[in-house]
Amino acid sequence: MARAAKQVRGIYEHFKRSGIWYVRYRIDGKLVRKKIGTQAQAQSYLDKVRYVRTSGDGVVPVSAKSVVMTAKEVAALPDPAGEHTLGQLCDGLLAKIKSDPEHYRDQENPPQRIACIKEAFGYRPANDIRPFEIRDWLSSLKTPKGARISDGTWNRYRTVFSAIYTWGNEQEKVTVNPVRGFKAKKQPEGVIRWLDPEEDAALRKVLMEDVEKTPATQPILRQQRMHRIYELDIALGTGVRRGEQYRITWPAVNFNRKEIIIPKTKFGPARTVHMIPAVEHALLELKKMPLAPREWKKGSGTKVPEECVFAIHENRTWFTSAVKRAKLKDMHWHVLRHTFCTRLLEKTGNLKLVQAAAGHRTIAMTARYAHLNKTSLADGMALIDWTPTPMPAMPPAPVPAPKKTKAKR
After folding, report:
1. Which residue among 48, 117, 287, 392 is buried most deeply as judged by most CB within 10 Å?
2. Alpha-carbon gap, residue 274 to 258, rounded angstroms
3. Is the same domain home to 161 and 203?
């Protein structure tokens, strides 16, 4: 009499001793049962399912009609007529970004995210990817230190994923956009940080110390360090964004009209920035400096625009160092823009004026600064104050008589 086959979890015979074996497994909460053949074949198929599901290196089908395949096996399959993989869509959007750096100014982060998406889903047919797969993948992303990515990063990856499908729809390569099947994560509004007078003075002090300790035998280094102070003055005096500031060219600076033309802003159209005396002084001093554009990396050439106002384009290194030496916390370059808006609102109390000066698209963006002006708020509340109506003095409350206690017998 033949020995009964050993029971293995995940494989079974539908009819005992028939010799026909099945596998069963769960994928995305769905139970899949599939007819395989011999017990050895069923065991081998189940092992492959477990490997692909654990490693993510392939596709585990959610129905018995398809078979489990590794990424290499999927890539080796001939593409059906009119079928495009997500990798092809990724390549198309990447080529579009690289061919139009004026429109896609960030040439670093989107390509990195596209490469990450392509590595995970590139071999999959673009029309077959489902919303929950993208959402689960986004939730599995980790930082280099192993922590979960922030909600902001999660949303940025989602935006790039959606842009890939948008490009595919424009090119009539796909007919869906599964990213629309789930929403972006809600993010709380960040706390607006600005420089108070003491912090401003501390930052300027360390920058001026750098200038003063520069040897007289190094005039170029002295100019470079003075350059930093003028960069700070222009940021605080105009409130322009970092990317806008470092693309300003001399033809856009009109000293007669006291105006600076910002040709391309965050939201597209150009805008005019008024030049206050402190900014005018900084620009005139910069114009005297014969500094050559600095390379970002040795041998890589310069990315500084022709006739750019700021010969030293990269400011992150010196600014981070100065902030650290000034012992300022939670400080980054965009804080200078917040400082400009806060100071202007404190002096004028006019939200529409601040909106125009800062180039905010809506008044709601400017209104975020309204609660910061505590002095003006207190002064304004004082205007609606009134003298309280005199009230007669209240008679003293009667003192209750002490309770009598029964004497113990």
Report:
1. 117
2. 6
3. no
Examine the domain organization and report whether 227 and 371 are in the same domain: yes
Task: Please state the separation of Cα 58 from the chain's center in Å.
Answer: 30
Q: Using an 8 Å Cβ cutoff, are 177 and 169 in contact?
A: yes
Confidence band for 1, pLDDT divided at 50, 70 and 90: very low
| HSE (side-chain half, CA atoms, 13 Å) at 216 | 0
204 φ, ψ to 5°?
A: -65, -35
Question: Among all chains, which residue has been given the structure tokens 């490469």?
Answer: 115
CATH of the domain at 252: 1.10.443.10
- Say what the pTM is: 0.62
For residues 16-31, average pLDDT:
84
Beta 30-37 vs 58-59: how paired, if at all? unpaired
The pLDDT mean for the chain works out to 84
Q: Residue 115 belongs to what domain range? A: 86-181
Reported as type and span, the H/E element at residue 27 is strand 21-27
Side-chain half-sphere CA neighbours of 165 within 13 A: 22
* 3-state secondary structure (DSSP) of residue 8: coil
**Structure confidence by residue, pLDDT tens digits, 140-150:** 999 888 889 98
Nearest to 264, CA basis, from 105, 40, 72, 30: 105
Cα distance between the two ends of the chain: 99
User: DSSP H helical segments within 213-276, as ranges?
Assistant: 219-238, 242-245
Residue 385: count other Cβ atoms within 10 Å of its Cβ: 7
Residues 283 and 337 in one domain: yes
pLDDT tens digits for range 43-76:
999 999 888 888 877 788 877 877 888 877 776 6
- As a whole number of angstroms, the distance between CA 108 and CA 243 comes to 14
Whether pLDDT at 131 is above 60:
yes
- Which residue in 126, 106, 127 sits closest to 117, CA to CA? 126
Does 350 lie in the same domain as 220?
A: yes
